[in-house]
Write a structure and sequence with these properties.
This protein is mainly alpha-helical. It contains 15 helices and no strands.
């Protein structure tokens, strides 16, 4: 039974990879690299086409358990291809009604071991991890531990996992604690990540975020500060940018 399940998984993965190759475009492959500082592996398939493939093949997996779907996601993550990471993100988010606390370890492993660019980080964390945290808010303390990781993608993940909850007005106290932990981070992409988180929180907590930014403006990296105040009224932007 186990052997048959593995063979079935191999067939699905092989078909999807063939589909991705058939939809690859040399120009898209060349232009994709321009969005990243680090080198990425990609087939050269536009994201809407990748999502279309992901959704179509997920339908063929009807009857598979969440664990079986997550095992397939493992295969996609391990390939290193950005398009396959997007499929893994799409499929893991599709399982959101079935999340349970034990899933956090799997999500953490994907971030720490497999994420290697901001797009894969944000796609996984904005949706899959963010949804999980809303379902199991007690795990936000584990998310805070990410801020101490030597892996910059883990540190960015601590912030960008709260983008969607922040827009809903949730977890303000935790958001400010994570911002505190990342405040002086030297990595540009981590600064952008927590700045984005603060900007999202400012939608419903403008005054509190403005006060936080103004209090820390002399030490907050300019990159993070600009992201955080992007949606604020001009008068608050000027106050935050004043030296």
């Amino acid at each position: 039974m186990m052997k048959k399940a593995l063979e079935a998984n191999d067939i699905i993965v092989t078909k999807i990879r063939k589909e991705l190759k058939n939809n690859s475009d040399k120009k898209v492959k060349e232009s994709s690299q321009h969005f990243f500082k680090e080198s990425i592996k990609c087939y050269g398939v536009k994201t809407p086409a990748v999502i279309k493939i992901a959704k179509a093949y997920l339908k063929t997996c009807k009857g598979k358990t969440k664990t079986q779907i997550f095992d397939l996601c493992d295969e996609f993550w391990q390939s290193g291809y950005i398009e396959e990471s997007f499929i893994a993100c799409n499929w893991s988010y599709a399982m959101r009604k079935h999340y349970d606390p034990s899933d956090f370890k799997r999500f953490e492993k994907w971030i720490n071991a497999n994420v290697n660019n901001w797009a894969s980080c944000d796609t996984l964390c904005n949706h899959t991890v963010g949804e999980f945290i809303e379902m199991y808010p007690e795990y936000i303390n584990k998310l805070k531990l990410f801020t101490k990781s030597p892996n910059k993608w883990m540190r960015r993940a601590a912030a960008v996992s709260l983008i969607v909850p922040a827009k809903k007005g949730n977890f303000l106290k935790d958001i400010l604690q994570i911002a505190d932990s990342l405040l002086l981070d030297n990595e540009d992409l981590v600064q952008k990540g927590y700045g984005w988180m603060l900007k999202a929180a400012s939608k419903l907590h403008q005054q509190q975020i403005a006060e936080y930014v103004i209090k820390n403006k002399t030490i907050m990296p300019r990159t993070a500060l600009r992201y955080a105040i992007e949606k604020m009224p001009q008068v608050l932007k000027i106050k935050a940018m004043e030296k």
